Amino acid sequence: MDLDVLVRNVLDRVAREIADAVRRSVADDLRDRFGINVAAPAPAAPRSRPARRRRVRVALDDEGIEQVYQYVKANAGKRSEEIQKDVAIGPERVRAALVHLRQAGRIKNEGVGRATTYSAVA
Questions:
Q1: Looking at the chain, which residues constitute the CATH 1.10.10.10 domain(s)?
Q2: Cα separation of the two ends of the chain
Q3: From CA 28, how far away is CA 35, in angstroms rounded?
Q4: With 80 as the cut, is the pLDDT of residue 71 above it?
Q5: What are phi and psi of 109, to 5 degrees?
Q6: CB-CB contact of 98 with 80 (8 Å)
Q7: What pTM was computed for the model?
Q8: Which of 3, 7, 28, 72 stands the most exposed, by the fewest C-beta atoms within 10 Å?
Q9: 74-102 tens-digit pLDDT
């Protein structure tokens, strides 16, 4: 865990505890001085972590992989978005097929991010 994250978590917890103590003290003072019975608010619930994005596993079949490979072979220099539009097997499956083909050494990529283009290895 990063030191900054650890420090931030400790400070958040301390701030919540101080705020709860101040609320209880104010409620006690109101009750003692004015006879007002103010229920101290319940302590704040601990904040939950933001939900993590889960990767969806896509089932790959040889036909889909081969379809993407044939497209890349015939259309060198295309970006992933262009391949997804032209190959009718769904964007997640196209991305998974591109990863599989790259790892198998059947295609190569050039560029970074959205500018990445694909071509078949000769």
A1: 62-120
A2: 45
A3: 10
A4: yes
A5: -125, 155
A6: yes
A7: 0.54
A8: 3
A9: 999 999 999 999 998 888 999 999 999 99
